[in-house]
Amino acid sequence: MSQQYQHDVLVIGSGAAGLSLALTLPGHLRIAVLSKGDLANGSTFWAQGGVAAVLDDADTVQSHVEDTLNAGGGLCHEDAVRFTVEHSREAIQWLIDQGVPFTRDDDPDHEEGSFEFHLTREGGHSHRRIIHAADATGAAIFKTLLAQARLRPNIELLEQRVAVDLITERRLGLTGDRCLGAYVLNRNTGEVDTFGARFTVLATGGAAKVYLYTSNPDGACGDGIAMAWRAGCRVANLEFNQFHPTCLYHPQAKSFLVTEALRGEGAVLKLPNGERFMPRFDPRAELAPRDIVARAIDHEMKRLGIDCVYLDISHKPAEFITTHFPTVYERCLAFGIDITRQSIPVVPAAHYTCGGVMVDEQGRTDVPGLYAIGETTFTGLHGANRMASNSLLECFVYGRSAAAHIVGLLPHIAMPEALPHWDASQVTDSDEDVIIAHNWDELRRFMWDYVGIVRTTKRLQRAEHRVRLLLDEIDEFYSNYKVSRDLIELRNLAQVAELMIRSAMQRKESRGLHYTLDYPEMLPEARDTILVPPTFDD
Ligand SMILES: Cc1cc2nc3c(=O)[nH]c(=O)nc-3n(C[C@H](O)[C@H](O)[C@H](O)COP(=O)(O)OP(=O)(O)OC[C@H]3O[C@@H](n4cnc5c(N)ncnc54)[C@H](O)[C@@H]3O)c2cc1C
């Protein structure tokens, strides 16, 4: 029997964004935080490097702003960048107050009174400004925030709950546009429950799983983007997908990044015949920026029809390799690859979704009562290329500002009346799950081949044709069969894929992460690609 729930705030997503919003809200509010798997399901847990913020006395807001604008290929919104950076110090202080065990600065020359935590530097940043917890920052942040949330009796943490769709006044045929909550599949009971809420927040992460190879965990299916789109929200800049050049290529190795530091220490990229190819693409060879290396690998894979290329550091002494890269060494060894003697099979992998649901500085979407925060959003911060470690920062800054905005509106917004139950009277159990599995594979493969690192108009047209067929097939399946996590994710991935393809086709230039052989030049004027859902024009 399906259940009805009522909360003041429904937060869909238990990563950095969702947890920071829930913890910033006052303790008298009834809050539900949902995760479609276990609570550690999102990308947050896997973040390694750290969080960018202006913390060092020698650093300035202006410098962080300029670095971000430079990385973003002329497409960042300067106001959003400034807003994020100006709130970076207080966001980090909040994390420190929650108890996040950031690595301390144990440098003997550390000056009395200066910032006490260690700051590292990453690509694109002109100062040391990355605060981190060794090389497992995301896990440290997630565990700390989760522990804090568990101490709060007003926060209900619900695992194995997959939001299927948002409930809006429009969807119920009422006058108005307000979001009233969501229908949510409880994977423990198989029922779709109704969550009514005064405010609903999408904190569902990115959509990198739309590609065959990704560094993201399994849940990164763009659910929030697809749900928001169906509810009437605009989305923007979905053609900008960041690819990490070197992910381990092995049938059993899901999503393992081979750190860029290997190339920093002299590892070279080779073709299956042993030929080194990067010098042909860029004078900096393996040390060229991420997007250039990813593009070169993609080019060679497509040219030769090969499944992967090879990263080789075996010319360095074994002891150097095992002491500098213990994690990579151990992980590869577990798959039978001894990196002190063998090269590592690698492919580029989809890593970060720069575009998403359009929001303002308070995380408000186009639908009243619906907020979005974190990787699922388009705030204007990342432009055409995300700068390293700005993404976690965005989760905290917008999570906290959305919470503050919700608090301001509380006195004016009542709890929605009882909402209709999910109607499952017309659907049956599927006996054709093979269709879902097949469509999953097909979608991710053609997105990789046709809408990947290097694009052409012809490839995009092919992808558009394929995705429309898939969407029809999935729609039919969705109308006739009971929902499952796989079906919900496939439906959302296909929707987001269609939006990505459409966005890529609209951009008649190459800029940042969007590179097309048909329009290799950058246009003088930088413009966002904004897609408006049909309900908006009704
Ligand atoms: C390997 C890796 C390393 C990274 N390193 C860094 C780094 O060093 N610094 C940095 O700034 N960024 C880094 N990033 C990016 C950063 O981790 C993410 O952008 C950020 O964690 C996203 O947080 P989020 O809260 O928006 O979403 P996530 O942490 O991805 O959480 C999404 C949540 O939404 C839930 N969810 C999704 N769909 C539904 C649904 N339909 N119903 C219910 N729940 C749902 C999931 O279960 C999950 O709880 C890295 C990413 C990866 C993959």
Describe it for me?
The chain is α/β, with parallel strands linked by helices and 538 residues long. The strands form 4 sheets. Strands 1, 2, 6, 7, 8, 9 and 16 form a 7-stranded mixed sheet that branches. A 4-stranded mixed sheet has the order 17-15-10-18, covered by helices on one side. The mean pLDDT is 94. It has helices at 16-24, 61-71, 78-86, 88-98, 137-150, 223-231, 261-264, 290-304, 318-324, 326-334, 390-409, 433-450, 457-480, 485-506; strands at residues 4-12, 31-34, 51-52, 119-120, 130-131, 155-158, 161-168, 179-186, 192-202, 235-236, 241-248, 268-270, 309-312, 344-353, 356-358, 370-372, 377-378, 530-531. The chain folds into 3 domains: 4-239 and 354-412, 3-Layer(bba) Sandwich (FAD/NAD(P)-binding domain); 243-351, Flavocytochrome C3, Chain A, domain 1 (Alpha-Beta Complex); 433-521, Methane Monooxygenase Hydroxylase, Chain G, domain 1, CATH 1.20.58. Bound molecules: flavin-adenine dinucleotide. Residues 12-18, 34-37, 41-44, 46-51, 137-138, 161-163, 203-205, 215-216, 219, 223, 257, 352, 374-375, 389, 391-392, 395 line the site of flavin-adenine dinucleotide.
Helix and strand topology:
Layout: E1 4-12, H1 16-24, E2 31-34, E3 51-52, H2 61-71, H3 78-86, H4 88-98, E4 119-120, E5 130-131, H5 137-150, E6 155-158, E7 161-168, E8 179-186, E9 192-202, H6 223-231, E10 235-236, E11 241-248, H7 261-264, E12 268-270, H8 290-304, E13 309-312, H9 318-324, H10 326-334, E14 344-353, E15 356-358, E16 370-372, E17 377-378, H11 390-409, H12 433-450, H13 457-480, H14 485-506, E18 530-531
Helix pairs in contact: 1-5, 1-11, 2-3, 6-14, 12-13, 12-14, 13-14
Flavin-adenine dinucleotide binds near residues 37, 161, 205 and 391.
